[in-house]
C-alpha cells in the first residue's frame, strides 16, 4: 500500500522503525535510535526498546494463569447465605439458577454475562490474537485489530463483576432477614478479573502488524 507523489510515482508508507524512531514506554518521549533498543531515554532514563523483551511470554503467562483460576472461580462457592432456619453455599452458576427460579431473569442474565461469558470471551479473543501475532499471520489484520479494540472496550467494564457481587449481596440482605459471608471462590474470582486485565494490558497491538509489508496491508 502506498501514496501517490506529484510525479506520478508511488511511495511506500514510512514506519517509525524505517525512520529510526523509538517511543519510550514510560514517558512517551520519541527519540532517534539506530540500534534495536537498549539506549536510555533522554527524558526519564528508562531503557528504550522497539518491543518490550519477553512481551509474549509475559502475556501468555498472565492469560494461562487467568484460565487456570477461572475453573475454581466457577466451581468453588463464592458466598454463604444464612437466613432463619437455613444456611446455603452458592457458586456463581448455582446463584444464576436460583435467580432464574425466583423470577429475577434480568439479574441472572447480568450475573451470567459478567461472570461467565465475558471472561471466556476475553480468553478466546486474546488467545487468538497472541497465536496469530506470534505465527506472523498476514491475513485479516484489520479484523484482528477490531478484535483488539473490542477487547479494549470490554476491559472498561471489568469492574462490572464487583457491581454484580454487591448487587447480589443487597438482594439477599433486603430479601430476607439474614447475612452474607464470602467464601474462597471470591478470591479465585478476583484473581480471574485482575489477571485478565493485566494480560490485556500486556498485549502490544503493534504485534499485529509486525513482519507485514506495506503491500500486505
UniProtKB/TrEMBL annotation:
Pfam family for this entry, one: PqiA
Keywords, comma-separated and alphabetical: Cell inner membrane, Cell membrane, Membrane, Transmembrane, Transmembrane helix
TM helices/strands, residue ranges: 59-79, 107-132, 153-176, 182-199
Lineage: superkingdom: Eukaryota
Cellular component, GO, one term: plasma membrane
Cellular localisation: Cell inner membrane
Name by which UniProt lists this protein: Paraquat-inducible protein a
Annotated organism of origin: Lasius niger
